[in-house]
Structure formats: structure tokens, C-alpha cells
């Protein structure tokens, strides 16, 4: 399932959501520009950008041998939210943020939504680091913070209609699906993939890199908790 838009209109202009999308796109364009001209030095520069501003679990947990001190591991939790691994990575994240972020921002208000977004991203990074504390692979992307937005949206608007592309082999169709099914399916996929990856790691078969599934799960759960802690103006719609 690939969501395209929801049917809940924004009551206010989502300044923070628009700002976050703009900042993510600008950082990605800068990151993309580092790859040119296509030579070994440019490739190393682009890779260094990811390692410098991505959040590396072993740096957070103090298990990296000879880890650099700048930027600080805590700072990279925030910088990593604006670094992406490719065009589809940033496009997918920004699409989800655009579809679901404006309504959560409506509920929380602009300032609280920004704090909520950053806190969910922190929870996601910490959650993934606790699962794999010795990993030397940097985590990048807004997925953890956006997962928090999805968790909050699920609680606030479970019956909202989401225009979704359903693809099954050669079957492609646009269907309006309740948000509870779209987001419920999404989080189940994250949990299953996370458990499979974790199990493979225990058996010594997991490859470094890939998707930080537990960052998604941690961000999603954090979003639900943060929604209640931050006391939205409107009553929760259960």
C-alpha cells in the first residue's frame, strides 16, 4: 500500500511541516551535490557527510573504539534527521510527512508539533541504538521522527480516509482505505521486519546497514505517548 493523500483538511497553515520538508529537501540537494564531479574524491566526500552527520549507535553507547568527538553524538541525533540515503528515501519520507504531518500539527500547534517531531526522532535513534549498541553504521533519515507523526495520527484520526495505491502483481488500483488499516499495516510490517532482522543478527546472519526497523517502531510508539503527554488542544478522537 502506497498512500497519496488523506481526506482530513488542515485547519491552519502547517508552517512547521512545510519548513521541515523544505529543510530536508535543501539538505538532500546539498548532499547530492557533493557527489559531483563523479570521481573517487567526490564519492568519499559524500560518504564522509553521512558518517559525520548520521547518528552512529556505538558512538551514543560509547562502544566505538577511537570515535571522533565532533560533532557530538547527541548533536548527530538531530542532524541525522535531515540526511537521507537517496532520492526515493527522501521522497517517501517527505510524502508521509506531508500527508499526515499537517493534521497532527493542527492538533498540537506549531511549537509543540516541532518539539514533538524532534522528541520522536530522538526516541527512534535511542531505540535503534539500544537494540544494536555496537553498530558502527550511521543511521540517517527522517523516518524515526515521521514514525512518531504516524503514531499520533493513528490515535487522532483512525477513521480518516487515505487515498492509497494498491499494487499486487499486475493489479494496480486507487482505493480509499481507513487510516487505521494503512498505518496498522505499516507498523506491523516494521515490527515483523525488525524481529526478522534481530533474529538474523542473533544467528550471525545479519548484514550491516539496511533499514533501521526498530527506529521506526520506537518512533511510532513514542509518538503515541508524546501525543498524550503534550496535551493536544482538541479532544482525542478515539
Q: Could you please describe the fold and organization of this structure?
A:
By secondary structure, the protein is mainly alpha-helical. It is 61% helix and 9% strand. The protein has one domain (2-229): Up-down Bundle (Rhomboid-like fold). The protein has 9 helices and 3 strands. Strands 1-2-3 form a 3-stranded antiparallel beta sheet.
Comma- or semicolon-separated keywords:
61% helix; 238 residues; single chain; 3-stranded antiparallel sheet; mainly alpha; globular; Rhomboid-like fold
- Write the element-wise H/E pattern from the N-terminal end onward: EHHHHHHHEEHH
Report the sheet with the most strands, covering strand number, pairing sense and barrel closure: 3 strands, antiparallel
Beta content: 5-15%
CATH architecture: Up-down Bundle
- Rg, rounded, reads 18 Å
Number of strands: 3
Q: What is the helix content?
A: 55-70%
Largest beta sheet: what is the strand line-up? 1-2-3
CATH hierarchy class name: Mainly Alpha
What average pLDDT do the residues reach?
87
Secondary structure topology:
Layout: E1 2-6, H1 15-33, H2 40-53, H3 57-61, H4 73-79, H5 87-108, H6 110-131, H7 143-156, E2 161-168, E3 171-178, H8 179-202, H9 213-229
Antiparallel strand pairs: 1-2, 2-3
Helix pairs in contact: 1-5, 5-6, 5-7, 6-7, 6-9, 7-8, 7-9, 8-9
Amino acid at each position: 500500500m502506497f498512500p497519496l493523500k488523506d481526506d482530513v483538511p488542515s485547519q491552519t497553515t502547517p508552517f512547521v511541516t512545510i519548513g521541515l520538508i523544505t529543510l530536508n529537501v535543501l539538505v538532500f540537494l546539498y548532499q547530492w551535490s557533493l557527489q559531483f564531479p563523479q570521481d573517487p574524491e567526490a564519492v568519499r566526500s559524500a560518504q564522509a557527510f553521512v558518517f559525520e552527520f548520521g547518528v552512529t549507535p556505538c558512538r551514543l553507547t560509547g562502544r566505538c573504539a577511537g570515535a571522533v568527538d565532533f560533532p557530538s553524538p547527541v548533536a548527530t541525533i538531530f542532524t541525522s534527521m535531515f540526511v537521507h540515503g537517496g532520492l526515493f528515501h527522501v521522497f517517501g519520507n517527505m510524502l508521509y510527512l506531508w500527508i499526515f504531518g499537517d493534521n497532527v500539527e493542527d492538533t498540537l500547534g506549531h511549537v509543540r508539533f516541532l518539539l514533538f517531531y524532534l522528541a520522536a526522532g530522538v526516541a527512534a535513534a535511542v531505540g535503534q541504538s539500544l537494540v544494536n549498541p555496537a553498530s558502527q553504521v550511521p543511521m540517517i533519515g527522517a523516518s524515526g521522527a515521521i514514525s512518531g507523526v504516524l503514531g499520533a495520527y493513528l490515535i487522532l484520526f483512525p477513521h480518516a480516509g487515505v487515498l492509497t495505491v494498491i499494487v499486487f502483481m499486475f493489479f494496480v488500483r486507487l482505493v480509499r482505505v481507513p487510516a487505521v488499516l494503512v498505518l496498522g499495516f505499516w507498523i506491523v510490517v516494521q515490527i515483523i521486519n525488525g524481529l526478522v532482522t534481530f533474529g538474523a543478527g542473533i544467528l550471525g546472519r545479519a548484514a550491516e546497514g539496511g533499514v533501521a526497523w526498530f527506529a521506526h517502531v520506537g518512533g511510532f510508539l513514542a509518538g503515541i505517548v508524546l501525543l498524550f503527554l503534550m496535551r493536544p488542544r482538541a479532544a482525542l478522537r478515539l
